[in-house]
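anyone seen this seq b4? input:
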Amino acid sequence: MLRLAMTTDAETFDRVRGPLADRGIAVDHVQAKERSLRVSGGGDRKAGGNGVGGGAAGEFAGFDAGFVYPSRLMEGAVVDARLSVPWVNDREAVLTSRNKAGVLAAVDAAGLPTPRTTLVSNPVDEAVVAEAVDSFSYPVVVKPNSATRGVGVATANDLDSLLGVVDYLNLVHDYRATGDKSYLIQEFLPDARDYRAMVVDGAYVGAVERELPADAVEAGRWKHNVHRGAEATGVDLPDRARELAERTAGTLGIDYLGVDLLETGGRLVVNETNARPTVDAATKYEPDFYDRLAGVIERTAAGE
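predicted toks r here
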C-alpha cells in the first residue's frame, strides 16, 4: 500500500483517510510545527511529549509522497529534507498560490476575469496610495498580499480611512523580518456570492458556497470565510464557473487547487486561490473526486 505523509491533522486528515485507504493509500500524520525538529544529529521532541531520541527517524521513514507542502515554510524545509519524498503541491505551488497579486496577474494575463486590483509595495508615501486608489470607487477592499483565512482584510470608505488601514500595515511592514511588504487595493463587489471550486488534475470536482448567517450579514459583516463563521454548502456550479476554475488551475500549473470565485451583477471573477484547500464532506463533491485525488497522489509518488 502506498504511504502518504500529511502535515495537517485537522478536518482534511480525518476526511480523506478512509476514502484514500479504500484506494490503496495509507495516510499518516507527520507533525511539522509546534515541536522541535532535528536538523542534524540529536533527536526530535513533539509538543507536550517526551524526546524520542534515535527512534525519531522512524517517524519520517517509509513514506512514498507528501500531501501538500507544510504551511510554515521554515519548518517545511526541515520536514521536506527528513521525509525526502515528492509532494502533491510542492513548495513552489504553495508559494505561487499564496501570492494573491501574482495569481491575479497571471490569471488576468491569461484573459480570465478578476476584480480590479492594484498592488502596493511598501514603503511608499501617502501620495502613492492616493494615486493608486484614484481610479477606484469607494468602498475598496484592502488585503495583505499573502495572508490567509481573511486575516487583515478590511474595507475603506474614503481616503482617510484607507490611509488609516495602511498605517497599521506600515507598522507590520516596518519590522525588518517581515518578508512580504505588499498589500492589495481591490474593488469591492457588494452582495457577491462566494464559491470555493475544487480542481484536481485539471478537472472541476465540486464546489461549495460560503455564506454568513443572516444575523451576521445584518450586522454588517461581509467576509465569507469559514474560519470566520460562514457555512459551506455544496452547490452545482454552471459550466462557465467550472471552466473558469479549471482554466485558473491550468494557468497556475497546480494539480490540486481551491479556486475562490465571486459572482455579482452578472460578473463572475477569480478572487483568490488556495493550494492547501480544506477537503469538505464527500457529499459536496463530484463522485470521481477521490478517484482523481488518488490518481494525482499515485503519479506524484511515481515521480511523474
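The first strand starts at residue 2 and ends at 6. The chain has three domains: 2-85, 116-187, 193-287. kinda curious what u guys think
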